[in-house]
Design goal:
The protein is an alpha+beta fold and 552 residues long. It has three domains: 243 residues, Orthogonal Bundle (GROEL, domain 1); 92 residues, 2-Layer Sandwich (GROEL, domain 2); 150 residues, GroEL, CATH 3.50.7. It contains 17 helices and 23 strands. Strands 11, 12, 13, 14, 15, 16 and 17 form a seven-stranded mixed β-sheet that branches. A three-stranded antiparallel β-sheet has the order 6-19-22. Strands 9-18-10 form a three-stranded mixed β-sheet. Helix 9 links the parallel strand 13 and strand 14. Helix 2 runs antiparallel to helix 3. The C terminus is likely disordered.
């Protein structure tokens, strides 16, 4: 509402809400703090799990920060920004999602204290930016170059990522699988730089059995079965045709009519259809293929002819599976059956249909140079299998980060304590008001070791004091052992994280805090309410007929 010459002028839609200044900042900060407190108890090796039930009654039980925030169906716009932080960290680094959200919430809490002291948001954001830049420099100094061919280091990184999750009981076993998988899918680019694309690991979930029955396939495991009972169930030295075309009778694009007046015409029509189908099967046989993986449908008659020739076939494979198969077997996906020849075929040592957890699956393994592999995750219940899959994703991502960057850093609150110490030293060298913001940034960093202690039932103040003392004496990798309640060297303890994870956490948490702090006006339009079903008038059709029916 604005006044022009004493006459009120309506600018916003009726029913819209507007918050300005401190009210807007306070509302946004409180929303972000609420999100941070929701996931804070899941942090660390002794973090608790959350049970989330959606509107359909589906249950998710998880310890993974980004999964919790995705499932929570958050409405607040400011809180959604914090959720985006978790998603970004998950995509870039895999691990560290909970840490980033807890840190952004604490940064905003400390900023609120400065706002109450009449410090301008621009000064706070400048201080936070300076602290972020300094933090990255300190992280680079603390980072240790590691030998990426050393499986022991890679396993320690993977175990650190799974700590606190349900699958922790099988962490040695899962760490070994994830390290093997990453090494197999690692590709060397021009210039010797290594590249790891975690999408090349195909994860299939099957309930039944224990987590330790999870298996890795040096190739691809398809959640499909052989289409015809007469086809072989096992083929060694397989030559695989990957076809992205329908092995069925072609149907016209437009609506067409076919008039058949005599029985001879009908027989000729059916014979032609049969000949076409037989030709499809013969084309595949002539190419030398003994296994067919088709992205689309395969007609019953084509199945029959393929079975007669002893060719195994699988239909309706996913596009993503076809791409991984092409990588693993060295074959090419063919879109036109007429173009299929021997050079397009992929090769595998063995293609076999096996029963896993009551369902049939097709295993394509023994590929010479598999740049794509599969992991079949097992577990007692659906919730366990889902949680193991989430843990595996984090492990694959962090091992991939180490292989690509070759830089690691100590975990267990060691990094955050050292950053807090160094940022306080840096803050004292600044002359302006931003010094206060840098000091608050340093205080916010201590929320991570404090939360680790709280979630483990230890005294947070005692632990924080002991940690600070260790770092003051130059023990840069000293962290909190939550099992014994002692301050130990995290590097020797094997609690190691990728440098990329920590950098991304600091970067994303700061950006979210700065973005929320800079907002001083929130304008919310009223949502349009749709007319109830069956009500006449209005609506999409303008009420052309009674009862809200569309006019014909």
């Amino acid at each position: 509402m604005a006044a022009l010459g004493g006459i009120p002028v309506l600018i916003l839609r009726e029913g819209s809400e507007r918050m300005r200044g401190r009210d807007a900042q306070s509302a946004n900060i409180n929303a972000a703090k609420a999100v941070a407190s929701a996931v804070r108890t899941t942090l660390g090796p002794k973090g608790m799990d959350k049970m989330l039930v959606d509107s359909l009654g589906d249950v998710v039980i998880t310890n993974d920060g980004v999964t919790i925030l995705k499932e929570m169906e958050i409405e607040s716009p400011a809180a959604k920004m914090v959720v985006e932080v978790a998603k970004t960290v998950d995509e870039v680094a895999g691990d560290g999602t909970t840490t980033s959200v807890v840190l952004s919430g604490e940064l905003l809490k400390k900023a609120e204290e400065l706002l109450e002291q009449e410090l301008h948001p621009s000064v706070i954001t400048l201080g936070y930016r300076l602290a972020e830049k300094k933090s990255k420099e300190v992280l680079d100094e603390m980072a240790v170059s590691v030998d990426t061919s050393d499986d022991d280091i890679l396993k320690k990184v993977a175990k650190t990522a799974i700590t606190g999750k349900f699958a922790e009981t099988s962490r040695d076993f899962l760490a070994e699988i994830s390290v093997k998988a990453v090494k197999l899918i690692t590709e060397t680019e021009h210039g010797g730089k290594k590249k790891v694309d975690v999408d090349n690991v195909n994860v299939e979930k099957k309930t039944g059995g224990s987590v330790r029955e999870t298996l890795m396939v040096l190739g691809i495991a398809l959640d499909k079965e052989v289409v015809h009972p007469g086809m072989p169930r096992r083929i060694e030295d397989a030559k695989i045709a990957l076809i992205n075309a329908s092995l069925e009778v072609k149907k016209t694009e437009t609506s067409a009519e076919l008039k058949i007046t005599t029985s001879d015409q009908l027989k000729a029509f059916l014979d032609e259809e049969e000949r076409e189908m037989r030709e499809m099967a013969m084309r595949i046989k002539d190419s030398g293929a003994n296994v067919v993986i088709c992205q689309k449908g395969i007609d019953d008659l084509v199945q029959h002819y393929l079975a007669k020739e002893g060719i195994m076939a699988v239909r309706r494979a996913k596009k993503s599976d076809m791409e991984k198969l092409a990588k693993a077997t060295g074959g090419k996906v063919v879109t036109n059956l007429d173009e299929l020849n021997e050079s397009d075929l992929g090769h595998a040592g063995l293609v076999e249909e096996r029963k896993v957890g009551g369902d049939k699956m097709v295993f394509i393994e023994g590929c010479k140079n598999p740049h794509a592999v599969s992991i079949v995750v097992r577990g007692g219940t659906e919730h366990i299998v889902d949680e193991v899959e989430r843990a595996l994703h984090d492990m694959l991502m962090v091992v991939g980060c180490i292989v690509e960057d070759g830089k690691a850093i100590a975990g267990g609150g060691a990094v955050e304590t050292e950053l807090a110490l160094r940022l306080r030293e840096y803050g004292s060298t600044l002359k302006g008001r931003e010094q206060l913001a840098v000091e608050k940034f340093a205080e916010a960093m201590e929320i991570i070791p404090r939360t680790l202690a709280e979630n483990s039932g230890l005294d947070p103040i005692d632990m924080l004091v002991a940690l600070k003392a260790a770092h003051e004496h130059g023990e840069k990798t000293a962290g909190l052992d939550v099992y014994t309640g002692k301050i130990v060297d995290m590097w020797q303890q094997g609690v190691i994280e990728p440098l990329r994870t920590k950098k991304q956490v600091v970067e994303s948490a700061t950006e979210a805090a700065v973005m929320i702090l800079r907002i001083d006006d929130v304008i919310m339009s009223k949502r349009e309410s749709l007319p109830p079903p069956g009500a006449g008038g209005g609506g999409e059709y303008g009420g052309g007929m009674p009862g809200g029916m569309p006019p014909y």
